[in-house]
Amino acid sequence: MYFQPLKDNAKRLHMYFGKTDDWCPTSFYDDISKCIPEAEAVLCDKGYQHAFIIGYSDEIAGIVYDWLQPDLGNTKSQ
What we know:
Layout: H1 4-8, E1 14-17, H2 26-35, E2 40-43, H3 52-55, H4 57-72
Parallel strand pairs: 1-2
């Protein structure tokens, strides 16, 4: 099963899928969410494009920061 490596590491995974991303269609999000519900998979509701780093790097950095908070402790965002 090709999902096994993802299942084995599900608690370490945070995946962010775009709604308008032809490189990674929403069916990937649907499959991951269905087969590995314990992994954190998010379907973007903000309209970020595939090349988010060009126009939305600060926003994505904020999302990643929030994901890391439980592991980082009580540090403050800069």
